[in-house]
Amino acid sequence: MRVDETPAGGPASTKRAPNHTAAPATNWIDLARVCAMGAVVLVHAFSPLVSTTHAELGSHSWWAAHVFDSALRWCVPVFVMISGGLLLRPREHEDAAAFYRKRWAKIGVPLIVWTVAYLAWERWRDGIAASDAVAAASSGTPSIHLYFLYVIAGLYLLTPFLRTVVAYTSRAGLWWFAGLALGIGAADQLLGLVEGVGGSTAATQFLPFLGYYLLGWLLMTSDPGPRALRYGAVLFTGGVTATAVGAWAAAAVAGEWGTGAEYVYDFLSPTMVVASVGAFLLLRSAGLKLAAIGGPAARRIGRVVSVLSGLSFGVYLVHVMVLNTLRDIGGTPDGAAAFLAACGYGAATAVISIVLVAVVQRIPYLRATV
Q: Which residues form the Acyltransferase domain (predicted)?
């Protein structure tokens, strides 16, 4: 019986009718995924300079890496928002069991395989103890980037429930929900600056990102018109500028790149939330414009972007191993050459990772890991 029908012999139902929001346009997502993947690789290429491992705080190389890094840190939030936008639309014919079966193949297998692979690689490369490996896996951070798998896995577990929330909650209510979740996530990260406070486990890595997941659905189903483009440009510019200035100021006051600067850089810091929303809106606008362009050239570009999008998840998984191997082989110079070296390592890592993933996807059984 539909919720708007009257039960026999009873009063009319007062249960709220579900929100039947039309499926949003998704032909822009391939471009967004490719851009976000490129941003992830570059963030990890520049991070040793920003953290002053290979550059002096305030030097030309540091500033160059810092500005680029500040402008690219929207990558992970955008990935989370894309997942929320695609998966939170209520589906009447997909129950929780069907959803979990489908998503296990996409996230469960890679999570297990790459957790083991990176821990084994770190043990071979750096000789980490078995107890440290267990602790890293238990915290959901077996490598610098694999926390993302634990975040997505946790969000997937909640998705069937969240679909019900989306179906029966007004958009105003969902905006409040997303804003409150992001606020709690930002507060959680801020309290983590207090010595001895904070920390997460593999089971709770996803919680701070719940607001982004809901926000993805709200933004994806919002009006994609010119106003969204203008808002995106303002939010992105303002958020990136505030992140760059704020992190520099925190580092300058402390006299080093420390916890204050790291907080400003965090995906849940207020400035990065603003920049990430702006990046999402800009990528959607750019992708929709690309999809609307006709002609052979546009179609060829679209096919290339589609292929790269299909490789993006695998590239995310393998790129840290590739990047650090290149650094181990080639070394990283200090001073003025550090920034150019980081750019070179980033480009080489992207190309090698794309080729590796394209090969692995053609191998039976192994393709399930990427």
A: 27-357
